[in-house]
Amino acid sequence: MEWHQVCKEVERRGFAGEVPIEPDLDNGNTAFNEYMAILLQHRSTVEQLLRDALFAGSIKSFTLLPTGRLVELARHIWGSELFEKLAGGLAPVNDGADAVMGRVLILVDDLNRSFPPSETRPELEAPSEENFPPYLRFMLTAARQLGTNGNTRLPKQQIVSWLEEHWPKDLGPPSTGKLEFMATFLRHPEDQKGGHFRSDRKT
After folding, report:
1. How far apart are CA 182 and CA 135, in angstroms?
2. N or C of the chain: less Cβ packing under 10 Å?
3. Mean pLDDT of the chain
4. Quick one: how far is CA 97 from the chain centroid?
5. Which domain covers residue 37, as residue numbers?
6. Are residues 99 and 148 in the same domain?
7. Distance (Å, rounded) from C-alpha 48 to C-alpha 51?
8. What is the percentage of the chain residues whose pLDDT exceeds 70?
């Protein structure tokens, strides 16, 4: 795949963020100039992502000489002053005694490994509760045990009593403030309004 095609593909796959949307030309030159500045920055980000991957060696690059010979490019050239020429899609190489320019080519398999399409990109695993802060783990346990789901309402004092009774020793002594705050956050915001108590929110 040629360099400009690779850039378009990385851009399309969203690794550099959303592609800037071209403005309505009726909005004048200012809007268009701003768009062009954002677009150039976006494309620069795409090129830098590819440059980093190529310099690290996770993506291999080649050049196709006018004679039809395919030559692998050394990864270190992607970190050199030759990058501007490479980003133009051409690589200066020696073909025998002659210095020639060849088209930059990227292996599709390498591209897919480093910048996988969204449909094949592995989903991030949900964080384990074991890695949550201790207070949050305790509140999640309380929510499950008390059954504070979307429709169930519990008096705040009932939640405070449960928290105090089941308070983990590794959290230290339970202060009134901690119990009150946790109980508040384990209830729905509308439950703080007071009034006649109902055990559910169904109308």
Report:
1. 9
2. C
3. 80
4. 47
5. 3-114
6. no
7. 5
8. 78
Contact predicate 115/108, CB 8 Å: no
Answer yes or no: do 87 and 143 share one domain. no
| CA angle centred on 185, ends 183 and 187, rounded to 5° | 75
Q: What is the pLDDT of residue 193?
A: 62
Number of domains in the chain: 2
Which residue has tokens 């207070």? 135
Interval 40-49: pLDDT, tens: 888 888 889 9
Q: How far is CA 87 from CA 5, 42, 60, 64, 84, in A?
A: 12, 14, 15, 15, 5
- Give the range among 17-21, 88-92, 119-123 with minimum mean pLDDT: 119-123
Question: How open is the CA angle 81-60-121, to the nearest 5 degrees?
Answer: 115
